[in-house]
């Protein structure tokens, strides 16, 4: 039994197009409609046959949907929700895939009074964006965190969870503010660090650009993959999850200062102990199937 029969995807970039591919692969009888604010993206979606229908307006896209998933940048959620409000069926469930949950939940409740809303965040992605970047297996074996809003029907949470399981994901339930703190440390802070390192390296006067690129295999290139992530998406993530990110950044700065001190005073034992602990973290991630040991970090670049 399928959780939904008519699904509409608003925003046909990396995540929206991956959901479309994954629905086709795992729930082929679902009637799939798509919409994107960008006419070029809509044309590409038609050419790729991502959906059964591509609608020119958000209203036309949602009119008979029983699940609507907003796959737009976090800062565009309010506008995307407002654009479909008048045409949404009262039976429809609205979900989203935004990387921050507390503010998105608030914005969606405000924009769609009376609607059934179940926010979610598939913790899966690549540094690419746009409708051609999507692929059907993006969510396979990855976590999707569903963050129910108090007062919304439990059956809606169950149906959205079931939907993500059918796309190959494993589902966890979390309070939105807890989600934002967990993701601040596991995703948002690492991106901020990568953006900083790549920025610093490209601003150094005494090392040339060509040397930075030539010797990047020493570690730098793994940061450049993360720092190549979509600028719009990440600008919005930091503005939306401001408090949790600033908190984690404060902790990080303190830890960085203590490492600085250990290096200055030649405290090799301190460095060795930390590096031993961090190595064990890497081992656990591989053991839990959240990455593999291949040198390119096992990421799919389809
Ligand atoms: P993306 O590839 O840039 O796609 C977003 C698409 O939404 C673009 O085509 C964009 O058009 C369109 N759009 C923007 N505003 C819109 C509106 N009001 N109505 C309809 N379409 C609109 O981004 P993505 O990587 O798929 O990310 C989408 C969401 O998923 C974000 O909220 C992000 O936080 C979340 N997420 C991303 C990842 C990841 O790794 N990328 C992972 C998990 C969750 P324009 O480009 O013309 O603005």
Structural write-up:
It contains twelve helices and nine strands. It starts with 5 loop residues before the first strand and ends in a 15-residue tail after the last helix. The protein is 51% helix and 11% strand. The strands form two sheets. A six-stranded parallel beta sheet has the order 3-2-1-4-5-6, with helices on both faces. A three-stranded mixed beta sheet has the order 7-8-9, with helices on one face. NADP nicotinamide-adenine-dinucleotide phosphate binds next to helix 1, helix 4, strand 7 and helix 10.
Which fold name is given in CATH as the topology of the largest domain? Rossmann fold
Indicate the CATH architecture of the largest domain: 3-Layer(aba) Sandwich
Spans where pLDDT lies below 50 across 5 or more residues: none
Largest sheet: 6 strands, parallel
Domain module tally: 2
Percent of residues in beta strands = 5-15%
Helix content: 40-55%
User: Which small-molecule species are bound to the chains here?
Assistant: NADP nicotinamide-adenine-dinucleotide phosphate
Termini separation: 31 Å
Structural class: alpha/beta
**Order of strands in the sheet with the most strands?**
3-2-1-4-5-6
Number of alpha- plus pi-helical segments? 12
What is the N-to-C order of secondary-structure elements (H for helix, E for strand)?
Answer: EHEHEHEHEHEEEHEHHHHHH
Q: What is the CATH class designation of the largest domain?
A: Alpha Beta
Q: By CATH's scheme, which homologous superfamily of the largest domain applies?
A: NAD(P)-binding Rossmann-like Domain
Radius of gyration from CA coordinates: 21 Å
Average predicted confidence as pLDDT: 95
Number of strands: 9
The backbone outline, from C-alpha atoms, is globular
């Amino acid at each position: 039994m399928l959780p939904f029969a008519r699904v509409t995807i608003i925003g046909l970039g990396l995540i929206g197009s991956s959901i479309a591919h994954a629905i086709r692969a795992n729930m082929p009888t679902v009637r799939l409609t798509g919409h994107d604010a960008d006419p070029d993206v809509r044309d590409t979606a038609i050419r790729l046959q991502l959906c059964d229908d591509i609608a020119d307006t958000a209203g036309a896209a949602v009119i008979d949907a029983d699940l609507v998933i907003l796959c737009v940048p976090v800062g565009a959620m309010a506008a995307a929700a407002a654009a479909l409000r008048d045409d949404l069926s009262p039976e429809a469930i609205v979900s989203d895939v935004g990387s921050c949950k507390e503010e998105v939940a608030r914005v969606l409740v405000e924009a769609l009074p009376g609607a059934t809303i179940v926010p979610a965040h598939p913790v899966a992605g690549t540094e690419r964006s746009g409708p051609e970047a999507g692929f059907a297996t993006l969510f396979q074996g990855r976590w999707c965190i569903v963050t129910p809003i108090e007062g919304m029907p439990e059956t809606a949470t169950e149906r959205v969870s079931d939907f993500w399981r059918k796309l190959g994901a494993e589902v966890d339930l979390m309070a939105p503010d807890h989600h934002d703190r967990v993701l601040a440390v596991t995703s948002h802070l690492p991106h901020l660090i990568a953006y900083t390192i790549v920025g610093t390296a490209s601003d150094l006067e005494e090392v040339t650009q060509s040397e930075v690129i030539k010797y990047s295999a020493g570690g730098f290139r793994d940061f450049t993959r993360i720092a190549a992530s979509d600028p719009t998406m990440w600008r919005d993530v930091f503005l939306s999850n401001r408090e949790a990110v600033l908190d984690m950044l404060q902790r990080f700065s303190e830890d960085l200062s203590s490492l600085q001190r250990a290096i200055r005073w030649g405290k090799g034992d301190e460095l060795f102990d930390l590096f031993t602990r961090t190595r064990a973290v890497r081992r656990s991630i591989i053991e839990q199937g959240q990455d593999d040991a291949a040198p390119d970090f096992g990421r799919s670049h389809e």
